[in-house]
Automatic annotation (TrEMBL):
UniProt family annotation: Belongs to the TRAFAC class myosin-kinesin ATPase superfamily. Kinesin family.
Any single biological process term in GO: microtubule-based movement
SUPFAM superfamilies: P-loop containing nucleoside triphosphate hydrolases (SSF52540)
Subcellular location: Cytoplasm, Cytoskeleton
Keywords for this protein: Cytoplasm, Cytoskeleton, Microtubule, Motor protein
Source organism per UniProt: Rhizophagus irregularis (strain DAOM 197198w) (Glomus intraradices)
GO molecular function, one term: microtubule motor activity
InterPro entries: Kinesin-like_fam, Kinesin_motor_dom, Kinesin_motor_dom_sf, P-loop_NTPase
Listed name of the protein: Kinesin motor domain-containing protein
Length: 96
């Protein structure tokens, strides 16, 4: 079995923008922890929180030349919570 962390990264630049704080709609995300079954079969955590508003996802891919690589995607939100934040800590405030 090939471990994903040893694969090269596909050379694709992510589109990065910074969230506006004045928007009417706020989009927040919480990274979920691996479940017991995923831990048991040694699944790799493909989500990485880069900062309070950016989540990076590593997507394993096979190229047309049958070489494996990891394609990195970056997503920007108004706020990103990690897997240790529980429902009581993750609150969306209504400013109206």
């Amino acid at each position: 079995m090939v471990r994903c962390k040893t694969l090269p990264t596909c050379k694709k630049q992510p589109n990065i923008f910074y969230p506006q704080q004045e928007d009417d709609i706020r989009v927040c995300v919480r990274k979920r922890p691996l479940n017991d079954n995923e831990i048991l079969i040694n699944e790799r955590d493909i989500a990485d929180i880069r900062n309070n508003y950016t989540l990076k996802i590593d997507k394993p891919r096979t190229r047309a030349n049958t070489r494996n690589c990891i394609e990195r995607h970056s997503f920007t939100f108004n706020e990103v919570f990690d897997e240790d934040d529980n429902g009581n800590e993750v609150k969306i405030e209504d400013n109206d």
